[in-house]
Amino acid sequence: MSISSVILAGGQSRRLGQDKAFVEVGGQPLIERVLQVVRAVSDDVVIVTNAPERYERLGARLVSDIYPGKASLGGIYTGLVAAQGEQALVVGCDMPFLNLGLLRHMARLAAGYAVVIPRYDGYLEPLHAIYHRRCLPVMRAHLEADELRIAEVLGGLPARYVSAAEIDLYDPERLTFFNINTPEDLARAQTLAQLLDRQRALELAAPREGDEA
Questions:
Q1: What is the mean pLDDT of residues 50-61?
Q2: How far apart are CA 209 and CA 65, in angstroms?
Q3: In Å, what is the CA distance from 192 to each residue of 25, 85, 90, 93, 195?
Q4: Treating both helix axes as pointing N-terminal to C-terminal, what angle do 71-82 and 136-144 enclose, rounded to 10 degrees?
Q5: Given CA atoms 11, 7, 157, 74 in this order, what sign does their dihedral have?
Q6: What separation in angstroms does the CA of 175 have from each of 28, 118, 137, 171, 193?
Q7: CA–CA distance, 101 with 103 (Å, rounded to integer)
Q8: Average pLDDT over all residues of the chain
Q9: What is the mean predicted confidence (pLDDT) over 135-156?
Q10: Over the range 82-113, which residues count as b (16 or more CB within 10 Å of their CB) and which as e?
Q11: Pairing of strands 128-132, 123-124
Q12: In this structure, what DSSP letter does residue 163 have?
C-alpha cells in the first residue's frame, strides 16, 4: 500500500514572531527535521505552502492551497489531492520530535480506514494522522460550507483511533505531538533536542521497513 507524506507549512507564526518552518532546533531548521522523518516513511513527500520559493531547495513537491484561508482542513485537502499515494500521512512543519516508530505503526494500521488518528485524554491529533483519498469529497463539502472543524469531518468516516496505550508503546512522553508556537516552546525544544537527537539519529539510520537487508 502506497502512503505519501504531506507537510503543512502554512500559518503566520505570529506568536513566535518568525517563520517557524526555518527556525533551527538542534542546529537544523524545523522543516528539515520533519522532512528527514517523513522520508523514512514515504518516497512521495508534498509540502503545502503559499510561499513555494522558500522551499524549492528541499527537494519535495510543492503545492499551494486550493482553498486559501481555510485553516488546517484546507491544507490537508490540498495535500491529499496532490499525494501520489492512496493515503497520506499529514504532519505540521513545526513538530521537531516526530516518532518514527509510531508513524510506522500508524501506517501499518491504515488498510481499510479513511483516517488513522491518535486520540488520547479527549484530544485528537489531526496534524499527525493518515487520510485516505476517499476523504476528499467529504472534506470538499465542509470547505465549501466553511465548516472547518476537523472533528466534524471525521464524524462520517471510518476511522481507526490510535489509543493512548498504543502511543505510549512508542512515545510515552508523547513528544511526537509537541509543536512550536511560542518562544517558550522553542526554548523547550532546544533543551529536548540536546537529549533526544542521538536516539533520533540512530532511528533514522536504521533500514526502512520492507527494505532489503
A1: 93
A2: 32
A3: 9, 33, 23, 17, 5
A4: 140
A5: positive
A6: 18, 13, 32, 7, 11
A7: 6
A8: 91
A9: 93
A10: bbebebbbbbbbbbbbbbbebbbbbbeebeeb
A11: unpaired
A12: P
* Cβ neighbour number for residue 11 with a 10 Å cutoff: 17
Half-sphere exposure of residue 174, counting CA atoms within 13 Å on the CB side? 16
Residues in the chain: 213
Q: Which residue has the cell 486559501?
A: 68
Domains of the chain: 3-205 (3.90.550.10)
62-120 pLDDT, tens digit per residue, is: 999 999 999 999 999 999 999 999 999 999 999 999 999 999 999 999 999 999 999 99
State which of 96-110, 181-195, 199-213 shows the largest mean pLDDT.
Answer: 96-110
The three cell numbers of residue 42 are 514515504
**Vertex 51, ends 46 and 53: CA angle to 5°?**
85
C-alpha cell at 39: 522520508
104's grid cell: 510506522
Rounded Cα distance, 67 and 74, in Å? 6
C-alpha 211/C-alpha 189 separation (Å) is 32
